[in-house]
Amino acid sequence: MNGAQALVDTFLAGGVEVCFANPGTSEMHFVAALDQRPDMRCVLGLHETVVTGAADGYARMADKPAATLLHLGPGLGNGLANIHNARRARSPMVNVVGEHASAHLAHNAPLTTDIESIARPVSDWVRRAAGSEALARDGAAAVQAARSGAGAIATLILPADAAWGPSPGPAPVPEPPARPVPSMAAIEAAARLLAEGASTILFIGDAALREEGLRLAGQIGAKTGARVMAPLSNKRIARGAGRTPITRTPYVVDIALAHFADARRMVLVGAREPVAFFGYPDKPSRLLPPDCAVTPLADASFDPVETLRLLAEATDATGVQPPTNRYDPPARPVGAIDQDKIAALLAAMIPDQAVIVDESITTGRLFFPATDKAAPHDWLQITGGAIGIGPPLATGAAIGAPGRKVLNLQADGSGLYSAQALWTQAREGLDVITLVFANHSYAILQGEMSQVGVRNPGRNALDMLSLDRPRVDWVSLAKGFGVPGERVGDMEALAAAIGRGLAKDGPHLIEIEM
Amino acid sequence: MNGAQALVDTFLAGGVEVCFANPGTSEMHFVAALDQRPDMRCVLGLHETVVTGAADGYARMADKPAATLLHLGPGLGNGLANIHNARRARSPMVNVVGEHASAHLAHNAPLTTDIESIARPVSDWVRRAAGSEALARDGAAAVQAARSGAGAIATLILPADAAWGPSPGPAPVPEPPARPVPSMAAIEAAARLLAEGASTILFIGDAALREEGLRLAGQIGAKTGARVMAPLSNKRIARGAGRTPITRTPYVVDIALAHFADARRMVLVGAREPVAFFGYPDKPSRLLPPDCAVTPLADASFDPVETLRLLAEATDATGVQPPTNRYDPPARPVGAIDQDKIAALLAAMIPDQAVIVDESITTGRLFFPATDKAAPHDWLQITGGAIGIGPPLATGAAIGAPGRKVLNLQADGSGLYSAQALWTQAREGLDVITLVFANHSYAILQGEMSQVGVRNPGRNALDMLSLDRPRVDWVSLAKGFGVPGERVGDMEALAAAIGRGLAKDGPHLIEIEM
User: Fold this and answer.
1) What is the pTM of this model?
2) For labelling alongside A169, which of A126, A341, B143, B433 has CA 20 to 30 A away?
3) Which structural domain range is residue A21 located in?
């Protein structure tokens, strides 16, 4: 048995059952080892941003890490943006980065790079395998690291000789320790803050945004009068009928400041204090008022749901009825397309147990509040601000949640970073419906441009912020990647197209002229 | 005047006249400054790998750096692979990486990353602007660094407040110092080695592969009997009628070893000692025999052409007739498509002063030797082994060499990393003809797979090495990005399609069924 074979067996024993891959020559022994284990599902991405974004989507839905297979420093670089997003989501992920054989490194061959330096900024754990004998143990440590806390990014650098050399066999992967809860003193102190009512915000993230956490937070809010809110960008939120609604932090700084203006206390459970996405010349970075006290009750190492359960008990909220969405889909809007109508149509058409991947950026700001009364679904967001996550995340989510329909709400500018994911959707026969909001611009930047005082942009600014010369033809793009597509220009056509997408198996793309 | 305006003016004064860009919010003041200077040509890429690969192509043809504009660590990560390639080519490049305002960094907003850590492995020079007052001087230092020696990668990290704060104005960019030549003692010692004849190899790279350097090296070889060779992968080679032919180092290790088996001495001018691309269990990393002495006469800081001129004088080769290609295009092959016939067709149809961008990988191994007798042209290669350079490099080369036709010889697997470059070709109306060799596989990896002993690959290996389920439809892909395309299945159709592409203005794509 060689190192690569022991590594694959270690992964399988540790619950890593999918490998999103874009291999190269230095990874051939690992590919050969994967080939001997058909129970490891290998999914090819045409670009590494597909590979890493799909691993994130898989982890968000399957609640366990996938492996990725990347080719030296440039392959890791290609996948870096979506590893960054996954890290900000605290998605578990085990990256295997192929590397030159150790003896070859000194020769500075063309692909030689400082992989550690590229990996560290987007990884919680980085290790270079020292050799084939210990490789399985390195792999076990990587899986263990990825499964720690809320989830973490583990990056294992795999020199080719560690893959091809001899191994004593796979290594066991220890079960991750149970995530702790805060001390009862901390719980009771937080409970007293929450009892102050509406001037206290219970700010929840991570797994607290699943059904049970939302219910508990809703009970606490209903009992104490404290407001319950979530970050702007979240890994996964349980939504729709039967779930407790949640308000997210607004993106626009002035609107967010207004939202938090009355806050005097904030209790954090599975979330960090909200801050502005970007810094601006005359705006604060903090979104909370200066006199708002922040209590970090449970960071990402803690169990947020159990923390909320203890908080509910301490606030005497157990048994209280939390706010709960009822199923009340609106009528399907007709006529010309606008954002409000799309929001309503989504509320009407989201199928039961759908997975929504939301990279709709400017077009989609109304979608979230409008869909509370839809059928039960999960909502996945771009967490690290690195655009181009949507198609890959939808791809991985579909693999991590078989039998559920995935709707990718996709801004066009962002989607063009990673449209190659459509091909993987076609190859794997995934039930992903991509709705492209084709406004043919980086609309968010046009807004930011006017913020910096440019009212009549010239050719250079227009060239850098618009995508309409030429217009991208998404239907042809999808066809090129093997995905059927259609273009719609009114609400009736959009509803019909979504219906067609939902009715069939496999991927579908709808370009929506905005 | 703010820092961003002073930076743009500094770039323009330093000869940086093109900015390949994919901006975000933190770069809006820089975008506004670019907008005020219409003499700075701003070229948008839909993905940062297009941005950085295009900057490389521009630099190779224009012999000066372009700027890139990238959005924080993830934007730099997206562009990393082609910066790596550019660095291996020693192409000059000035990367401007937008960054959060300094005061915002402490808040760990979603896009916060350790940009320096990502930048260093692919940069020769990295600096974080300390503030707006000194920003123009930082920009001048970046341009100076990029123009040093054979060319270098300079990465300037630009916090938003350094862009928006006040500046005293632009800074002067010093002319780069003349590149030195070796001492006469070193030249004469090398001349004695070359006089040993065919057991000595004069190994030349960088600017020595332009017309004049090749002529000088050819004279030296003709006079001394020493063999003249080049690295496997090169920035730019002058080729075709009237130029001196050059033999490149083979990719396959065993073939390369055979090529160098008789070498006892190697003199390096603008090149490093040839090594294997990858390490293998039972093959050496060095390609030269153990007893071959290597003389590093002129590294990348030296002037390779002047070094060859001195060597020619020292070997008494001045005035000797070097080997020279005559124009002798073959007849256009007909019938079924194969690699030999494509090579011959290229030799017949490459137009005068064409720029060839070669990322043809396995399909194209015969193209280089077959095109010596074509019309004069330049040949650009993938230098760092990070695939996905072709379409971006062709895009930048067309901007750096206006009036010349660009032929992008493109392997399909590699081209799918960066097909977004087609859109920039359409927007800018660039004369790029992309020939896609559609073998629907990572053919090079299928060869490597059999090298590691896998003779009957199973589903996992097949899935990771083949691209034929589904087949990518390149004509639709090109249409999606606004580029006219056609698919050809025999040599007559291919010749007609190339003819159509050459006859018109603007980009054209030809998918060649292999």
Assistant:
1) 0.98
2) A126
3) 3-164
